[in-house]
Amino acid sequence: MEQDRQQSKAPASPKRRGRRALVILLAVLIVAAAFLAGWLGSAYSRDARLRKLEWMIGTLDEEYYKDVDLDALYDALYGVVVPDRFSYFYTADEYAQLIAESEGRNEGVGVTLLTESDGVRFYAVVENSSACLAGIEKGMYLLGWSEVGGAVQTGSASELISFIDTQAGEFILYAGFTAGETPSESNAYTVDATEYRAAYCLYRDSESAYAFRGDEQTVLTDVTEERGALAGLDADTAYIRLDSFDGNCAEEFAACLSLMKSRGRSNLVLDLRGNGGGYMSDLQAISAHLLKNAEGNSPVVARAVFRDGSETLYRADGNDYSAYFTDESRITVLADENTASASECLIGALIDYGTIGYEDIYLRHDAETGVCRTYGKGVMQSTFTTISGDAFRLTVAEIFWPNGNSIHEKGVTPSYPQAGAQAITAPMLPDGTDAFLTQVLAALA
């Protein structure tokens, strides 16, 4: 309406136009002054040390005699701010990828590589990944790689990663359990680096093996032909390997327990080797099935103690041990130096509620280093995000077992928190056979 009234009037005189221009100028100056005051107030309300740092970076960028890579500078500064090895700064892209992986939506071949003195080995192979489906196994040596129909290339782990980044479709990885083996058709595995749905549990007993397979939704599938039954297990015992507290692991674990029950098994070998932990919510869901002497519908499985002394209690999502086990059931836990965080919390809950004794824990003993313990991560991280999507994962609390024990920087050992855990001397990675598991099953027989 205001615009219509102005259009009906005669043109303004020069004098009136001048007054209007003056009013507009004053309004602009008032807004600018208010903005400047707000900016100055905000700037000077910050820590003086931050202002000095901003001044230094600005001076460096403008006056240094060479060009300054500000991206590299800020990356270094982010690293300085990170206070411990469990905290981390993520760019928006990195954090988005982390969230996707936490939901089981992974990209890539599905392997973790470890460089040793005699070559590069597959430290981990993600269930249901391209590498897993192709038949690559944990412990194999990387012998080479090539495009389909192309010449074989060899090199370091970083060179393989660079190669994979250039591939849009299928390619070949060569792998075997003998270091230096010549790449050939007999050890060639066709893989791709597309998106896949990660799986976290593997079930085996004396007659069968089951794993989760599928694209959008994974289904518990009979893989006895590919993976084989577990020789050495008695007819009353099942084996479940839990790789991480991530994605759909809680649902998968419950499905494995149901399968165990339907197949008439009431004892369990729970393999937590290499399980570096994950989300407390998954710990709460999984522990609900494993607490023998717990009372109530939601027993405490961990306590988080913050800097100000306040506590958060993490409770199991239920308490249905008797749905899968009897009073005579035996649960055995396998662990190594990479069993960490939520895995160690689960061990603590099993100990504190009488599901296992320390003598039911089998730890890998390294013949060269003498190490025989779990990792010893008894702290918890929370993630703080910016509007732009960057994230800062920060250690915010120490974690204690239900009875108050802390394994931080100590881990579970044959003598801590209490004597009894059993040492098994075996290589960290299998060499075609799992020496650690073979020895444990022999001890249980």
In short:
The chain is of the alpha+beta class.
Characterise the protein shown here.
By secondary structure, this protein is of the alpha+beta class. Helix content is 31%, strand content 24%. It contains 12 helices and 20 strands. The strands form 5 sheets. Strands 11-10-9-12-13-16-17-20 form an 8-stranded mixed β-sheet, sandwiched between helices. Strands 1, 14, 15, 18 and 19 form a 5-stranded antiparallel β-sheet that branches. Helix 9 packs parallel to helix 10 (280-287). It is globular and about 75 Å long. 34% of the residues are buried. The model is unreliable at 1-15 (pLDDT under 50).
Name its key features:
445 residues, alpha+beta, 2-enoyl-CoA Hydratase, Chain A, domain 1, 31% helix, 24% strand
Described by strand count, sense and barrel closure, the largest sheet is: 8 strands, mixed
Helix- and strand-based class? Answer: alpha+beta
> What is the first-to-last residue Cα distance?
92 Å
**CATH class group of the largest domain:** Alpha Beta
- Global outline: globular
**Helical amount:** 25-40%
Task: Give the arrangement of secondary structure elements.
Blueprint lengths: L1 H6 L6 H32 L2 H16 L6 H12 L6 E3 L1 H11 L2 E3 L3 E6 L2 E7 L4 H5 L6 E7 L9 H9 L5 E6 L11 E4 L3 E3 L3 E4 L4 E5 L5 E4 L1 H4 L9 E6 L6 H14 L4 E5 L8 H8 L12 E7 L4 E5 L15 E5 L6 H11 L8 E5 L13 E7 L5 E10 L21 E4 L9 H10 L1
Parallel strand pairs: 12-13, 13-16, 16-17, 17-20
Antiparallel strand pairs: 1-19, 2-8, 3-4, 5-6, 6-7, 9-10, 9-12, 10-11, 14-15, 14-19, 18-19
